[in-house]
Amino acid sequence: MDKVSGKLHSSDMGVNENYHTHLEEEYANYRKPPDGARIVRHNDESVREGYIRNGGKEVKLFTSALKAFQCNNRIVMAQRKHLDDFLRGRIIGRLECGRTQLEVSEELGISQSVISRLWQRFQDDGNVSRCYSTGRPRVTTPNKDRYLAVTAKRNRRSTASDLSSQLSSATGTTVSRQTVYRRLGHIGLYARRPVRCVPLTATHCRL
Length: 207
Prior knowledge:
Helix content is 46%, strand content 13%. By secondary structure, the protein is of the alpha+beta class. Among the domains are: 41 residues; 46 residues. Strand 1 and strand 2 form a beta hairpin. It is found in: Nucleus.
């Protein structure tokens, strides 16, 4: 390149063309699907098209191009995200029309185990919407938290291990020391070391 004019010489252009050709080859190799499968568009998503043997016949499966993997010569489908309510309705609608779970799995590219669980849930309670939870439930109830607080205030020298043992014997609930620390910390009770003082003698009292 000419530093003054900023123009590319013919030699520089040749180097750039070779570089871009190399990048295109690398990208093509990167996009090349393994095991002879090919990448196709299915349900607005790039997926890998593959086949498995099922009872003497070949079954086409669409699996995620990024998370599908092979195990014992079977393509195992990996679900990347939760199914929305619309897709759940499509699955139930096809099954109610007499389609088999395997046929629905082939058409929609969804694991047959997911379809089976969804269909079983629909038959049990008639609802296929996703259940949202607030997380793992607390191991202690408000009454048990109050028990820890009252016990700790009655005996200020009790350790977290002692309080955990007392709670277990009283309610049958086993908690860790860290849980006891957190529950007491919520009400302002924290671990303290007892103060060690020099014992006073009669001379000290006269002073």
